[in-house]
Design goal:
heterodimer; A: alpha+beta; VC0802-like; Alpha-Beta Plaits; 2 domains; 7-stranded antiparallel β-sheet; B: alpha/beta; 4-stranded mixed β-sheet
Chain lengths: 143, 431
């Protein structure tokens, strides 16, 4: 099952990100994973949070442009080559990875990668076939 | 040779006036008889060709505006059958306000002669190599100076615009002596010439620069960098093209080719004719042209007329440099741009109408930046997705305006909303 990623448009100027983080903090939202894509003029902040619907509401209310994208949270073996294996499976299935970033867990021995691909269902099927576990939203909450 | 046509350029005021009056009477009759659109305008103003007997009667005629040209597009103001027309030129790539002008061979000849007068006034002659890097094509810059250079008998280099390295190579190899282009391109060329370390090898002595407003500081800068004399030239497609007026050795304003183009200064609000020396909108009447004889055409360009004696010996009236516009038209890299055109594109592409246009002049070249606010629909989680939309917008704007803008996507509601009239344009160019 894919999980929901929240993407936020942030202008590229000092304090741009701090304000987003502050809004989430004030609403008690826990950020579990994040990545920032930046250009000269703006950035796209991507977040995996403990409460995606509420995050949307909070950010939209604060005037942000927000979109929700399904992404895959795939378990990797926490050793050298773990990520390479996941990526190789996708490469063999001709799945293009738009971007990826790491998911931080509080429990040792667990390593996850957030994958953004065009066709999540197909990518999930390909990974599952090779024994890669995909976490859903409730699983992420426990990690 | 000091003048191309001394009998006209240095004519006594009486001679010139008599010639103008005779031509005006004929031109009004011609337009009335041949252009139903214009006849209707005259009827509305309750004026007949018979009412126009001298120059003093000129203000009785109705004005023509760009709006009329748009309404009459493409053939509505044409005064002769197409079989008599030999050329079409058009204003610089603006969809909403595209203007097509028609020329008979006679019209081309008088336009070429107007440019020839400008080249002679800039010190040109048969032995000169005239390097034309105005654009060729529908734009009048290239064809106008090209024709003028032919009339003078100079060696003409029809370089057209772009490819700076090649421009400089030709300049060196063929020893160009007179450069014709926009002032901003001249400044750019000057920097490139210095950078290439060939400043000592160029043979340029003069430049004829027009199609955009420029300052006295910019003139001095170009003159110092290239070691030349830089002359201003003015014109517009509706009236013919460059050469409607041109600067002489005195460099204090442009002599209007009054035997072809009558000039008036009006108050753009009241439309009242203002006395000589007043600042206002310049209005032209074409009294020699056959195919496209616009009378009292409102240019929207603001300047001052003066008939003070000129040390060059010409008696033709002089107009100052263009001091501004009486509408919101912007001239960017020589191209006419209306903010409304940018707005049309933004709305069509799904962007909010709240936008800002930033103009600057970086290293003497105009830059156009359009800032738009990001919308929910336009947003994507991938930079690629946003960049694709940005690129689409740049392409749509380029198609509409004829020049390429930089598009910057900013946060929603970050562009200041003003209470009254929106400040859409921030022009940081120092003119």
């Amino acid at each position: 099952m894919p999980v929901e990623q929240i993407s936020v448009f942030v202008e590229n100027h000092p304090g741009g990100l701090a304000v987003v983080a502050e809004a989430l903090s004030a609403a008690g939202i826990d950020i579990r994973a994040m990545s920032l894509a930046d250009t000269t003029d703006f950035g796209v902040l991507r977040l995996i949070v403990n409460d995606a619907p509420r995050t949307q509401t909070v950010l939209r209310a604060a005037g942000y442009i927000v979109s929700v994208t399904p992404v895959l949270a795939a378990f990797m073996e926490d050793r050298p080559g773990g990520l390479a294996r996941v990526l190789q499976i996708l490469a063999d299935a001709a799945v293009n990875v738009e971007y990826l970033y790491a998911f931080i867990t509080r429990k040792a021995g667990n390593a996850l990668v957030i994958l953004r691909v065009e066709d999540v269902d197909f990518a999930e099927k390909m990974l599952a076939k090779k024994g890669v576990q995909i976490a859903d939203a409730s699983t992420l909450l426990e990690l | 040779m000091k003048y191309y046509h001394p009998d006209i350029e240095c004519a006594s005021p009486e001679t010139l006036k008599a010639l103008q009056a005779e031509k005006l009477v004929r031109a009004v009759r011609h337009a009335y008889d041949r252009v139903p659109y214009y006849r209707e305008l005259m009827r509305q103003k309750k004026v007949e060709p018979g009412d126009i007997r001298s120059l003093e009667d000129l203000p009785k005629l109705p004005f023509l505006t760009k709006e009329d040209l748009r309404k009459a597009y493409p053939y509505g103001l044409l005064a002769l059958p197409l079989s008599d027309v030999v050329r079409i030129q058009s204003t610089s790539g603006t969809t909403g306000t595209r203007v097509v002008a028609f020329y008979t061979q006679h019209d081309i000849d008088l336009w070429d002669e107007s440019c020839a007068r400008a080249i002679i006034a800039a010190g040109g002659g048969k032995d000169d190599v005239v390097h034309v890097c105005y654009g060729y094509g529908l734009f009048t810059g290239g064809p106008g100076l090209n024709g003028g250079s032919h009339k003078v008998g100079s060696l003409t280099l029809p370089m057209s615009s772009g490819n700076t390295e090649r421009q400089i190579q030709f300049m060196l190899d063929l020893e160009s002596t007179i450069l014709c282009c926009t002032p901003s391109y001249a400044a750019y060329l000057a920097e490139a010439i210095i950078q290439m370390g060939v400043r000592d090898r160029i043979k340029l002595k003069a430049g004829i620069f027009g199609a955009e407003a420029w300052s006295e500081e910019m003139r001095r800068d170009i003159e110092d960098k290239l070691g030349i004399k830089a002359y201003d030239i003015y014109g517009l497609t509706e009236i013919s093209g460059p050469g409607v007026s041109f600067e002489c050795s005195e460099q204090t304003g442009m002599h209007i080719n009054e035997d072809h183009f009558l000039a008036e200064i009006i108050d753009p609000e009241t439309e009242e004719v203002l006395p000589e020396g007043s600042k206002g909108e310049i209005v032209f009447s074409c009294i020699s042209k056959e195919a496209f004889p616009l009378l009292r055409y409102r240019t929207r360009d603001i300047c001052v007329l003066s008939r003070e004696k000129c040390s060059c010996g010409r008696t033709l009236i002089k107009m100052s440099r263009i001091l501004g516009r009486s509408d919101d038209m912007l001239i960017i890299r020589g191209v006419n741009v209306f903010p409304s055109q940018i707005e049309t594109v933004l709305l069509r592409c799904g962007y909010p109408a709240n936008y800002q246009i930033l103009l600057d002049r970086v290293r003497h070249t105009d830059s156009l930046e359009v800032q738009v606010e990001m919308t929910q629909e336009m947003f994507s989680d991938t930079v690629k997705g946003i960049a694709a939309r940005e690129k689409e917008l740049v392409a749509s704007l380029r198609a509409m305006l004829g020049i390429s803008p930089k598009v910057t996507i900013v946060a929603p509601r970050s562009i200041a909303r003003s209470e009254g009239k929106a400040v859409r344009v921030i022009d940081k160019r120092k003119l």
